[in-house]
């Protein structure tokens, strides 16, 4: 598959009062054309920092301190703010969990939508407005004309997320980054938004990077899944492979801790004990060791590398993956 | 202490809700005239037995949180009654309610905003015990330590401030505070929605353990269907201020009778990529404004099975046994 976005051996560091911390290390993947990759993990796993580094939105204190990120072979790390501005919106767009906080509360939807289209596509005022209205219709907003005149506060959460998607898609981006796009929504509205994202992906051939902590959303949307823990990738696989034959104990934990309708009512949920360690308190060896039921001596001493278990299934675990680093290995452990 | 061991009621449900309504006036214009009503809760009735859990689901705007606050008498209902341990709460004065309040507590969605950031956790847990004069002096300290341990935290944490805890730990503190007065009923209003999935499971396990140990009764309000199914004995489905279906949780989710319940279940994303939605059974549109709820059945504007009658005649909640549905044309 043609790689649209490449993230290679990326480490992100932030300056803090107590020295530098690295909330993201060893993140490595590529996103193909028209592909949906889901990045899953708990708060503190580094998934949002990874997307911000792709967007060049790390702020003054943060930087990509190792590795590189490239879009269609063009390196993004190190571009000037002006060059990045052209790429953001045109080539890569992003939608967030809270559409309300991403929109300007004192400007109408129409104003914000057409301004973006004018800026990025160089259209005139009238054409941009017509284009914006068409885009609202495309994302399933029937009263597009009157919604253009509304302010953000007047719209429901689901409607605002549709507006955000219309904005993000209005410049026909190659990559759409969706950071927990449905976490704040009701299940019915979540289903509508997920379906809309699937339709747009098919229609425009957009590649999607979906950030979520919800394995059910992953099951519905993803082609491939990247599981992050403590700032690094711990497992990567095709979505069917991941659900059927996952190997990392953390992935297993994430899958089993979700109560599914109609299953095992009397039983206790398989909660993962404890919580993600802070970047400044990352243990030596495997980062998941303190929460892992299968921890061995080796896990406490040596940091496991990401190994290829065959067919693009990669795992970072001493117990379950004996494959060689970076090499194909079809054998089962 | 030992509030959950007494037996002042013989038989009868712990909580009885009858025709509960809350209508908020809407004022607009220069002189703030009454121009309408939001019927946030509009005639809800159910019973909840001691030691059981009733889950309440429904979209935002369905009135489920308002109903929780009405039951706890944090807001005065417009109409209808709430009977708790055989005593009618509506109409009681604040003074009369006070001793009742120790038996009914609430756990909120956001433990960040429901704890005082300037007070040590131990003081916040001890305060209700002192105010209600359950214990005095050193016994309070001992109880605080015990409460922290009950919810799986170290007793040493009593000297810390809320910001020193993670989201999951803070929710444990929220639960400890609800337990401080040995309540019988706890209203859990979206207690896990703001937490990571792995932490959600920890809190759900904790709530279930506590129920077993202390004989607690829960009203569990949430929009995560899996969590509600896991913790509830019975489930009630609310839509625009009305209870549209209620029944045993396995039966209700296994074979829903109301098209809205079925639509909610169909919207829930699958547990495995093998079960992806094939036919597009997604419910269309947003929940209508409670300011202008549709006539007849309130769900008829979004219902795939709506008939003419549904637009004019309001269905009532009926059914044999404990499974009840408010629909002219139930699914089976």
Automatic annotation (TrEMBL), chain A:
It comes from the Bacteria. Pfam families: ABC_tran, oligo_HPY. GO terms for cellular component: plasma membrane. GO terms for molecular function: ATP binding; ATP hydrolysis activity. CDD domains: ABC_NikE_OppD_transporters. Residues 7-255 form the ABC transporter domain. GO terms for biological process: peptide transport. Keywords: ATP-binding, Cell membrane, Membrane, Nucleotide-binding, Transport. It is found in: Cell membrane. It is a peripheral membrane protein. Its main location: membrane. Belongs to the ABC transporter superfamily. This is Peptide ABC transporter ATP-binding protein. It comes from Paenibacillus oryzae.
TrEMBL record, chain B:
This is Peptide ABC transporter substrate-binding protein. The lineage of its organism: Bacteria, Bacillati, Bacillota, Bacilli, Bacillales. Residues 263-282 are annotated as: Disordered. Residues 15-265 form the ABC transporter domain. PROSITE patterns: ABC_TRANSPORTER_1 (PS00211), ABC_TRANSPORTER_2 (PS50893). GO terms for biological process: peptide transport; transmembrane transport. SMART domains: AAA. InterPro entries: AAA+_ATPase, ABC_transp_ATP-bind, ABC_transporter-like_ATP-bd, ABC_transporter-like_CS, Oligopep_ABC_C, P-loop_NTPase. GO terms for molecular function: ATP binding; ATP hydrolysis activity. Keywords: ATP-binding, Nucleotide-binding, Transport. It comes from Paenibacillus oryzae. Belongs to the ABC transporter superfamily. Pfam families: ABC_tran, oligo_HPY.
């Amino acid at each position: 598959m043609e790689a649209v976005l490449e993230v290679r051996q990326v480490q992100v560091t932030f300056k803090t009062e107590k020295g530098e911390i690295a909330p993201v290390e060893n993140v490595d993947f590529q996103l193909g054309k028209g592909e949906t990759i889901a990045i899953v993990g708990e708060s503190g796993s580094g998934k949002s920092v990874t997307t911000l580094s792709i967007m060049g939105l790390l702020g003054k204190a943060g930087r990509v301190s190792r590795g590189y990120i490239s879009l269609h072979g063009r390196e993004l790390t190190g571009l000037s703010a002006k060059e990045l501005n052209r790429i953001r919106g045109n080539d890569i767009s992003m939608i967030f969990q809270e559409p309300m906080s991403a929109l300007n509360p004192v400007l109408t939807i129409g104003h914000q939508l057409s301004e973006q289209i004018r800026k990025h596509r160089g259209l005139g005022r009238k054409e941009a407005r017509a284009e914006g209205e068409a885009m609202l219709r495309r994302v399933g907003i029937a009263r597009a004309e009157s919604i253009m005149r509304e302010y953000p506060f007047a719209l429901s959460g689901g409607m605002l997320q549709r507006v955000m998607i219309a904005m993000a898609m209005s410049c026909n981006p190659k990559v759409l980054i969706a950071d927990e796009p449905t976490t704040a929504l009701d299940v019915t509205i979540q289903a509508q938004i997920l379906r809309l994202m699937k339709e747009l992906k098919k229609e425009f051939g957009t590649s999607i990077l979906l950030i979520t902590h919800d394995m059910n959303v992953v099951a519905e949307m993803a082609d491939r899944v990247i599981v992050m823990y403590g700032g690094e990738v711990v497992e990567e696989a095709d979505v069917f492979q991941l659900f059927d034959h996952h190997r990392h104990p953390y992935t297993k934990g994430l899958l089993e801790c979700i109560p599914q309708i109609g299953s095992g009512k009397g039983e206790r949920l398989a909660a993962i004990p404890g919580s993600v360690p802070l970047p400044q308190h990352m243990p030596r060896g495997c980062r998941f060791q303190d929460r892992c039921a299968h921890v061995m001596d080796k896990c406490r001493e040596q940091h496991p590398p990401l190994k290829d278990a065959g067919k693009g299934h990669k795992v970072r675990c001493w117990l379950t993956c004996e494959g060689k680093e970076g090499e194909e290995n079809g054998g089962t452990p | 202490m030992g509030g959950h061991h007494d037996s002042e009621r013989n038989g009868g449900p712990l909580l009885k809700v009858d025709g509960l309504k809350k209508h908020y006036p809407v004022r607009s214009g220069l002189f703030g005239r009454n121009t309408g009503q939001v019927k946030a809760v509009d005639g809800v009735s159910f019973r909840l037995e001691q030691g059981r859990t009733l889950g309440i689901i429904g979209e935002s705007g369905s009135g489920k949180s308002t109903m929780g606050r009405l039951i706890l008498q944090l807001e005065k209902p417009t109409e209808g009654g709430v009977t708790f341990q055989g005593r009618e709460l509506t109409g009681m004065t604040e003074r009369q309610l006070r001793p009742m309040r120790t038996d009914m507590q609430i756990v909120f969605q956001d433990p960040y905003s429901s704890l005082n950031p300037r007070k040590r956790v131990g003081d916040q847990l001890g305060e209700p015990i002192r105010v209600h004069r359950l214990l005095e002096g050193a016994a309070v300290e001992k109880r605080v330590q015990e409460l922290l341990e009950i919810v799986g935290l170290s007793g040493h944490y009593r000297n810390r401030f809320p910001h020193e805890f993670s989201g999951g730990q803070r929710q444990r503190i929220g639960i400890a505070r609800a337990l401080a007065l040995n309540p019988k009923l706890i209203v859990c209003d979206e207690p896990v929605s703001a937490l990571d999935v792995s932490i959600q499971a920890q809190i759900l396990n904790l709530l279930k353990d506590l129920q077993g140990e202390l004989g607690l009764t829960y009203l569990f309000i949430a929009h995560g269907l899996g969590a509600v199914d896991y913790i509830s004995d019975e489930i009630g489905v609310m839509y625009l201020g009305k209870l549209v279906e209620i029944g045993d949780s396995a039966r209700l989710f296994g074979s829903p009778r109301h098209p809205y319940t079925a639509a909610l279940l169909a919207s829930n994303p699958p547990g495995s990529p093998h079960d992806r939605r094939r036919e597009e059974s997604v419910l269309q549109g947003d929940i209508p404004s409670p300011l202008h709820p549709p006539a007849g059945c309130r769900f008829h504007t979004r219902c795939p099975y709506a008939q003419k009658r549904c637009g004019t005649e309001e269905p009532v909640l009926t059914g044999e046994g404990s499974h009840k549905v408010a629909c002219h044309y139930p699914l089976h």
